[in-house]
Specification:
With about 500 residues, the chain is mainly alpha-helical. It has a two-stranded antiparallel sheet. It is globular, with a radius of gyration of 22 Å. A hairpin with a 6-residue loop joins strand 1 and strand 2. It contains 19 helices and two strands. The longest helix is centred in the middle third of the chain and has 33 residues. The protein has three domains: about 150 residues; about 140 residues, Four Helix Bundle (Hemerythrin (Met), subunit A), CATH 1.20.120; about 150 residues, Four Helix Bundle (Hemerythrin (Met), subunit A) (Up-down Bundle), CATH 1.20.120. The structure holds protoporphyrin IX containing FE. The site of protoporphyrin IX containing FE (HEM) has 28 residues, from helix 5, helix 7, helix 17, helix 18 and helix 19.
Length: about 500
């Protein structure tokens, strides 16, 4: 399969000259062989076609950056989890680095992991003639990520626990952050400017979703720039300053992630052989519904200044009431399609269904916990992790399909199944422990003795958080091992072959 498959792509035939037939789609994703007339109908549903070799290499580059960011976010989270686990935190000599670790964990996961995966999706659609610029954007993002990751060792280690984009108040950190977000902004602009011709209605629907996500990213950057300008009078750059600076942009960025989560759910649904319940044409109004709330962002800035309580409340309410308007109905439709689906045609399809099922489960768990938030305590990260681990799981499923599609090895299916189960189960336990501790008003972003976990009633849920967290970390490590072992390194270098 591999040899024949990559030889076809090297010729660049698939992307260039003619609309793909279902046979092309099946060639792109080996396990999508039609087994019945109904299945054939799916192939004009939700799927992005694969570009010729240079586009694959670019997409592989962004995928590699995404995987490397998970390595970093995963390594520091071991310290975070242990520093919050009762009794064990007394044995950890590095509790003092908890805050720095939290900054790196959040920025490498929510920013770099999520946006680099968006970079994979954007690279699949980028016009051939802009691939060179696409590679420049990738190199900027990679350099930025490297500097950001090592910034605790490249300057003053002054962590601020502000929300959305927590910062280390040193020059290296900001240089890294600017290079990464600038690199992704360049790719977003290039992708919005020129793309390869879409190959099917199914692709047009998903591409519309991708465009809205990239546009909202640029809107989030504009909100950040506007806030920076409005706050220019503030000379003391402390935690409160950065909270105000990233508040608007941070909230808008969540809409980018939700649009891409919906794109990934739809694509994974096709890869998993689910019945077609939403035609490609119906996907477009869904993405419009999901994107519209983000357009309120500039209106909020027009009425309120960046340092006003009104602006902060307006963006929070925009997220609470606007964040699920499209994703919730789609989640219900995906759950229904999973329920109604025929048995899988190939074992690989079971992996796609497992990723989808666990992603939906975490989405619902995170949503339910969101309504339980009362005050500032660990119920908030419990809600966060439901929502963001749901996105992470659907991206892990898509990565398993994209790796062979981009000319790398097919990850072993059985191990991929264990991995998804381990990560989902660990995350659920972790989230339940955090939500339960939230009921005891255990504080966010606080480690060690400072948590004030006096009695057993306080300690038990945090032990559950710790155990779940470490199981999820094992699931994350297994994902990275499977993905890196599948990578065909020669396949990534843009100057190779
Ligand atoms: C192996 C899986 C993971 C574990 C065990 C884990 C664990 C944790 C812990 C213990 C905290 C600190 C909570 C606090 O002190 O308030 C935290 C914070 C955070 N994590 Fe994770 N995490 C994981 C994966 C992720 C992923 C995949 C993302 C995003 C893509 C993410 C994003 C965040 C964010 C945004 C915060 C800050 C929460 C807040 O502001 O309250 N985490 N994580």
């Amino acid at each position: 399969m591999q040899g024949a498959f990559s030889a076809r792509l090297v010729s660049g035939k698939v992307g260039a000259s003619r609309l793909p037939t279902p046979a092309d789609n099946t060639a792109n994703f080996p396990f999508m062989q039609p087994t019945s007339t109904k299945v054939t109908m799916q192939y004009d549903s939700h799927s992005l076609s694969l570009p010729a070799q240079s586009g694959q290499r670019l997409a592989s580059g962004w995928l590699l950056l995404a995987l490397l960011s998970l390595v970093g976010a995963g390594l520091v989270v071991i310290l975070i989890v242990l520093a919050r686990t009762p009794v064990i935190h007394n044995l950890i000599p590095w509790t003092g680095s908890f805050r720095t670790a939290l900054v790196i964990h959040v920025d490498l996961s929510v920013l770099v992991w999520f946006l680099s995966f968006a970079g994979v999706l954007a690279s699949l659609t980028l016009a051939e003639r802009l691939q060179g610029w696409g590679r420049l954007a990738l190199r900027m993002a990679m350099l930025g990520t490297g500097i950001l990751t090592f910034s605790p060792f490249l300057g003053e280690d002054a962590p601020f626990r502000n929300n959305y984009v927590p910062v280390l108040n040193n020059t290296a950190f900001f240089v890294g952050l600017l290079l990464f977000s600038g690199g992704f902004a360049l790719l977003a602009l290039l992708t919005l400017w020129q793309r390869r011709p879409a190959q099917s209605a199914g692709e047009r629907g998903l591409r519309f979703g991708l465009w809205t996500a990239l546009l909202i990213y640029l809107l989030a950057l504009a909100s950040l720039a506007w806030s920076w300008w409005e706050l220019r009078g503030i000379t003391v750059h402390d935690e409160h300053y950065f909270e105000l600076l990233f508040w608007g942009g941070g909230h808008l960025l969540q809409f980018t992630h939700v649009q891409l989560q919906m794109l990934a759910w739809l694509w994974l649904g096709s890869l998993a052989g689910l019945p077609l319940f939403l035609t490609p044409r119906m996907a477009i109004p869904l993405f419009i519904m999901g994107a519209l709330p983000a357009l309120v962002g500039p209106v909020i800035h027009a009425f309120y200044t960046a340092d006003s309580g009104e602006l902060r409340l307006a963006f929070s309410e925009l997220m609470i009431y606007g964040g699920g308007v499209a994703s919730l109905p789609l989640a219900l439709m995906m759950a229904w399609a999973l329920w109604k689906a025929d048995p899988v045609a190939r074992p690989e399809q079971e992996i796609m269904r497992l990723a989808l099922r666990s992603s939906l489960a975490l989405f619902v768990l995170g949503g339910v916990i969101g309504f339980m938030i009362r005050g500032i305590n660990v119920t908030i990260p419990a809600h966060y992790h439901g929502s963001i681990v749901s996105v992470t799981l659907v991206y892990m499923g898509l990565a398993y399909a994209l790796l062979p599609g981009l000319g790398h090895q097919q990850p072993p299916v059985r191990l991929a199944g264990y991995q998804l189960n381990l990560y989902a189960f660990g995350s659920m336990l972790h989230i339940i422990g955090l939500a339960w501790s939230g009921g005891h008003d255990v504080q966010r972003k606080t480690a060690g003795a400072a948590q004030g976990l006096e009695n057993l009633a306080d300690k038990i849920p945090m032990w559950i958080m710790g155990a779940g967290g470490m199981i999820a970390v094992c699931g994350g490590i297994l994902f990275l091992v499977l993905a890196f072992r599948s990578f065909r390194w020669g396949g990534m270098d843009p100057n190779h072959g």
